[in-house]
Amino acid sequence: TASPAPGTETDPSRLLRQIFGFDGFRPGQEEIVEAVTAGRNTLAIMPTGGGKSLCFQLPALCREGVTVVISPLIALMRDQVRGLREAGVAAGALTSGNTDEETAEVFAALDAGALKLLYMAPERLAAAGAVNMLRRIGVSLIAVDEAHCVSQWGHDFRPDYLRIGELRRDLNVPLAAFTATADEETRAEIVTRLFDGEQPQSFLRGFDRPNIHLAFTAKDQPRRQILDFAAARKGRSGIVYCGTRAKTEGLARALEEAGHSAAAYHGGMEPDQRRMVEARFQSEDGLIVVATVAFGMGVDKPDIRWVAHADLPKSIEAYYQEIGRAGRDGAPAETLTLYGPDDIRLRRSQIDESLAPPERRMADHGRLNALLGLAEALGCRRQKLLGYFGEDSTPCGYCDHCDRPPETFDGTQAVRMALSAILRTGEYFGSGHLIDILLGTETDKVRARGHEALPTFGVGQEWDRRQWQAIFRQMMGLDLVRPDRERHGALRMTDSARPVLRDEEKVTLRRDTLTRSRDRRPAVK
Ligand code: ADP
Ligand code: ZN
Q1: 47 C-alpha vs ligand 1 centroid, how far in Å?
Q2: Where is the Rhodanese domain (predicted)?
Q3: Pocket perturbation via mutation, ligand 1, pick of 22, 30, 365 by most ligand atoms within 8 A of CB
């Protein structure tokens, strides 16, 4: 076998970023990718939308030779092939939907040894010479999507799936089977028919990590909040994730001054230094590592007792992966994620300024929105988190909201006042100025623009400045408004705010973040 060409990337976490554009693995993916890449027979059961395809696509890139992907869904195969090609991966499909040209192209690529992934409809396995062809091209892995189709008693039975077991025996290569729906009987049937009854490594675990306590808090005095959280867990190993490298060093110092043992860790450090911190973290009890996302991919410490986010992560996937480093031993672990309007702005502009194609940027905004929705959630955090990954559940009893349900109020009126201030000033200002208008504060900027004459001027005195900041933050979290990066954070209304403005929809807001501050600026009437 040929060794990978120089510069060929085979590190899964880096490929995840470079090829697929994801910040982290989704629940379960990492373990499956590891097992499949290592060439073990695997059976993975993941909910729809959980991200199965990555679990064979990524190993296919890490392994030598061709990965054959068998799927009954032609449209889906074509989509995946297109996506992979756009990302620069050599992939092709042999399905009944192909034109002759496409088929010829696939065969040419196979003959040239230039294909990494070959998608095939199961019917193709029945075609004369198919198995010989597969024998010839150096298949090193078979991936079977919708593996439950092999079950003769199921609704989706595909007779051609019965050929797959034979193909595996014939080629003598590992097989990875995936499905979203497999009761115990179907599972047993998959094992019998695809693996000749030999138990594959199975991944049936749901996404839930019930021993991890989930909590979010709006940023108030972020450094103080992190120090308090750490102080209550003194002597226990933890990770604090920060948005920037500079912040990791400052916070590590502050933690040391507070009597903890702490170390900074980020991508700008020398590899030697980084390895030293990793080694200390593995061996020392109670070390706190203050890190950027660069920390954790290779860390396998089962007894990390807590994870805190000093800044909002990039996406709900990144969040899940980062908190998921805590409590691998199954013992209780705690997490705290801080978030504020600056984080939201920062994450949005990072997405907007990335060089990714528009669809990917839109998906990134969606994944950020999902995280913001979780941060601003009114009910059980876990239920919401698992729901996002496709799993139904009941309130967990082990998150901040289950501990103490947030007090809510009908915020429709406040939101409409804010939207009206935004619209009447041409969607041209940030929250500071808008709050001045709502409070009726006659600043120079207000006077210069003549905004004291607006009907909205001073209508919002029921709330103080801090409360308005919380309202605006929640509005951003609910994606009712978004900062416009062309206009330095000027807030624009989104389409989802229209029904609120028209009084067709109500907005429920959290009250607990709205405590009136003592040092409120006097409002001018
Ligand atoms: P299914 O499990 O239903 O086959 P897919 O593989 O189609 O799911 O993935 C569902 C969606 O999740 C896709 O839009 C995919 O881009 C996205 N996705 C998969 N893995 C990740 C990840 N690690 N981070 C972010 N998004 C992901
Ligand atoms: Zn809960």
Answers
A1: 11
A2: 224-271
A3: 22
What are the beta bridge partners of residue 42? 176, 201
52 Cα–ligand 1 center, Å: 7
Ligand 1 binding pocket mutation candidate from 30, 54, 57 (most atoms within 8 A of CB): 54
Q: Look at residue 32 in the predicted model and tell me its pLDDT.
A: 95
**Distance of alpha carbon 440 from the chain centroid:** 41
State the ligand closest to the CA atom of 319.
Answer: 1
Relative to the CA of 25, which ligand 1 atom is closest?
A: 23
With CA atoms as reference, report the closest residue to 343 among 375, 317, 385, 305: 375
Quick one: which atom of ligand 1 is closest to the CA of 29? 23
CA of 386 to the centre of ligand 2 (A): 11
- The sign of the torsion formed by the CA atoms of 242, 247, 251, 252 equals positive
Query: Per residue, what are the HEC states of 101-142?
Result: HHHHHHHHHHHCCCCCEEEECHHHHHCCCHHHHHHHCCEEEE
What ipTM goes with this model? 0.96
Which helix (H) or strand (E) segment holds residue 192: the answer is helix 184-195
Point out the ligand nearest to the CA of residue 33: 1
Task: Report how far residue 509's alpha carbon sits from residue 511's, in angstroms, rounded to the nearest whole number.
Answer: 6
Count Cβ atoms below 10 Å from residue 72 Cβ, excluding itself.
18
DSSP 141-173: EEEESSGGGG-TTSTT--GGGHHHHHHHHHHT-
Interstrand relation of 333-339 and 408-410 (parallel, antiparallel or unpaired): unpaired
Contacts of 27 (CB under 8 A, 6+ apart): 50, 207, 320, 324, 389
Residues with CB under 6 A from ligand 1: 22, 25-26, 29, 46, 48-54, 317
Look up residue 428 and give its amino acid: Y
Ligand 1 atom at minimal distance to the Cα of residue 52: 2
In this prediction, the residues of the chain whose per-residue pLDDT falls under 70 are: 1-9, 182, 205, 297-298, 485-488, 513-525
Give tens-digit pLDDT for 376-387.
Answer: 899 999 999 988
